[in-house]
């Protein structure tokens, strides 16, 4: 189970754990690295660039394998010091960064000079093509199914991935809605070189979130997500709960961001993950929860996906063309 993604990014398996606010910490990322995948520490989960450096070093204590850092660049009135986080990533000697949220052009010269490979995550063919032109080393294309920000085009992976594959020559990862061997095989068939998963990794033993959140992902169906901020053109797919449905209805009734600001506060969402009260705030989850049925260790999960994909290709698919 090797693709050119593995060769370019120096990992055993073409399985990526994308950046996840409050979840992408050393414990999870090291577990993904030790299992042969590519995990990303989430830079902005750390309160300062210095804390990020400490988190990277904590992760190094838990694994000898390569791992990366996610830098999510989102428009904001008081932006975090992105350049300082970027420099912390470079100075820490991390081999790869996952950029997301915005055009990474401004940061690419520094990453190139520092020898840091860039995997840019985006939600449309045009943005993937743009990133390729800018010289990134790989792209992740995130379909409408995904947890977090799917963009505003509403194109699911079944179309987005092959459409992007027609235009992308560098290694490409399919993202959004992937959770098992079937997804990996499908992604490869659609023209991708591997998969990125978020929600599936939250429901693992090592994910540093409350067990109630993991159990909820097992219980929830593919219908139990909500798209918030549609009217603000900053759509986010999150778990359905009393808070997310209230946000949807206030905005649908003509409300402005001010009318939901308290409900969507990041501090409330963080608390959900920490204390396990699922109604405390907004928390991120994708439609793939409908096919998550257990809480394995990361090693079990990755082994299951790789072994299952081999079987699927050699048995079920080979039988179809025999
Ligand atoms: C709890 C959670 C938090 C996330 N936070 C971020 C983030 O801070 N930055 C980012 O680029 N993507 C974030 N994502 C998106 C994931 O990296 C990934 O692109 C997405 O989960 C893929 O869709 P899936 O959940 O269907 O696998 C988050 C996803 C989850 C589940």
UniProtKB/TrEMBL annotation:
Signal peptide: none annotated. GO terms for molecular function: dioxygenase activity; nitronate monooxygenase activity. CDD domains: NPD_like (cd04730). It comes from Saccharomonospora marina XMU15. This is 2-nitropropane dioxygenase-like enzyme. Keywords: Dioxygenase, Flavoprotein, FMN, Oxidoreductase.
């Amino acid at each position: 189970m090797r693709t050119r993604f593995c060769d370019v990014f120096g990992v055993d398996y073409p399985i990526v754990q994308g950046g996840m606010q409050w979840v992408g910490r050393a414990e999870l990322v090291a577990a993904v690295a030790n299992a042969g995948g590519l995990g990303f520490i989430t830079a902005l989960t750390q309160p300062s660039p210095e804390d990020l450096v400490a988190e990277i070093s904590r992760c190094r204590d838990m694994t000898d394998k390569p791992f990366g850092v996610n830098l999510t660049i989102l428009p904001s009135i008081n932006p975090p010091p992105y350049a300082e986080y970027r420099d912390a990533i470079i100075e820490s000697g991390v081999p790869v960064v996952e950029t997301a949220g915005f055009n990474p052009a401004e940061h690419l010269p520094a990453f190139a000079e520092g020898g840091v490979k860039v995997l840019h995550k985006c939600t449309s063919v045009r943005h993937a093509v743009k990133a390729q032109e800018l010289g990134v080393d790989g792209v992740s294309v995130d379909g409408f199914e995904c947890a977090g920000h799917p963009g505003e085009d509403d194109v699911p992976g079944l179309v987005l991935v092959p459409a992007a594959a027609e235009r992308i020559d560098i290694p490409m990862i399919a993202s959004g809605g992937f959770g098992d061997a079937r997804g990996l095989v499908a992604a490869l068939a659609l023209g991708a070189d591997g998969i990125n998963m978020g929600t599936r990794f939250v429901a693992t033993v090592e994910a540093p979130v409350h067990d109630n959140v993991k159990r909820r992902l097992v219980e929830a169906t593919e219908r139990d997500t909500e798209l918030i901020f549609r009217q603000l053109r900053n759509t986010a797919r999150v778990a359905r709960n009393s808070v997310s449905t209230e946000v949807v209805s206030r905005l649908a009734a003509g409300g402005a961001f001010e009318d939901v600001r308290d409900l969507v506060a990041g501090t409330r969402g963080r608390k959900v993950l920490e204390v396990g009260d699922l109604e405390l705030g907004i928390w991120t989850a994708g439609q793939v929860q409908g096919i998550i049925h257990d809480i394995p260790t990361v090693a079990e999960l990755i082994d299951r996906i790789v072994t299952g994909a081999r079987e699927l290709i050699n048995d079920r698919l080979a039988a179809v063309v025999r």
